[in-house]
Amino acid sequence: MDAHPQAQKPAETTDHRLYQSLLARTAGQLPVTVAVAHPCDALSIGAVAEVAELGLITPILVGPSTKIRAAAKDAGVDIDRFRMIDAPHSHQAALNAVALVRSGEAEILMKGSLHTDELLHAAMQADGGLRTERRMSHVYVMDMASYPRLLLMTDAVVNIAPSLDDKRDIVQNAIDLAHVIGIARPMVAILAAVETVNSAMRSTIDAAALCKMAERGQITGAVLDGPLAFDNAISRAAAKQKGIVSAVAGNADILVVPDLEAGNMLVKELSFLAGADAAGVVLGARVPIILTSRADSDRAHVASCALSVLLVQSAHAASMLAQVR
């Protein structure tokens, strides 16, 4: 018998403000076309159908048609209204979904039931992929009752051991997303295990370098500080106790982790112990990329799609403004 059955169920936030806010901001807009790669299990096809029912997206289902239809039957959803492109296996489904984006037929790429690295491999191809001059990175937008504002976390999914140049793009991607969701001047905490620069800890050296890059205009649109330990980044009391004088300490909007392992563990801790709601998206590609997970709640699936739709709408608005100017 499990001695701690309560640990199996994550805590709940009180009002799901992230979910409600994203739905409110995307309501009443035309649905965005999404290329969904290999939605061949009940969970992934069910999530696609739910978001489509909300009017957020128009999906194009890419993968083995017999498997997709079987998954839809298991999920109890009707997919006859959706366009489907047959592909023999997950690898080809990923390539075909990326091709739909490159051709302009879709404005968002979404992972179905294939492995994340398989979809990203197709998206990151030098020829035929979705690369831009920016390094691709993933950002979680997290909402928990124990923190007074939304908290962005990057990168816990894509970049395993990012270089300093990679981190520059990771930080800028997160700042750009913060602007889209309404944080005009985000406070960015570059995390490490300690808050002082230590030559034996690369994360602290990178943090200091990133802050200097921001001072020199190589990173824009935010206030950076680091290295900061996690407690100093999110707690004013902890920062005060350590004698840290900083606009960012205790007020962080964005947490930049040193590597994927640290980020992945931190995101899961906040989700399962602090009851955080989360929406996630890959930035730095031609279009937003949604990487769903089997562990995600229905709310997380919807919120991630809504976040990506908001990014597309923001890009449209910026493009129209540029044309007027």
Helices and strands, with pairings:
Layout: H1 17-26, E1 32-37, H2 42-53, E2 57-63, H3 65-75, E3 83-86, H4 90-102, E4 108-111, H5 116-123, E5 137-143, E6 151-154, H6 164-180, E7 187-191, H7 202-215, E8 223-228, H8 230-234, H9 236-241, E9 254-256, H10 260-272, E10 277-283, E11 289-290, H11 298-324
Parallel strand pairs: 1-2, 1-4, 2-3, 4-11, 6-9, 7-8, 7-9
Antiparallel strand pairs: 5-6, 5-10
Structure description:
The chain is of the alpha/beta class. It contains eleven helices and eleven strands. It has a domain of 153 residues: Isopropylmalate Dehydrogenase (3-Layer(aba) Sandwich), CATH 3.40.718. It has a six-stranded mixed β-sheet, with helices on both faces. Strand 2, helix 3 and strand 3 form a beta-alpha-beta unit. Helix 2 crosses helix 11. The protein is globular.
| CATH architecture descriptor name of one domain | 3-Layer(aba) Sandwich
Please write the CATH class name of one domain.
Alpha Beta
**Structural class category:** alpha/beta
What is the CATH superfamily label of one domain? Isopropylmalate Dehydrogenase
**Total number of helices:** 11
Helix content: 40-55%
- How many strands in all? 11
Strand order of the largest sheet: 8-7-9-6-5-10
Radius of gyration: 20 Å
Q: Order of helices and strands, N to C?
A: HEHEHEHEHEEHEHEHHEHEEH
- Which whole number gives the mean pLDDT? 92
- DSSP strand content: 15-25%
The coarse overall form would be: globular
Short recap of the structure:
The protein is of the alpha/beta class.
Which structural traits does this protein have?
11 strands, Isopropylmalate Dehydrogenase, alpha/beta, 11 helices, 6-stranded mixed sheet, 325 residues, 17% strand, single chain, disordered N terminus
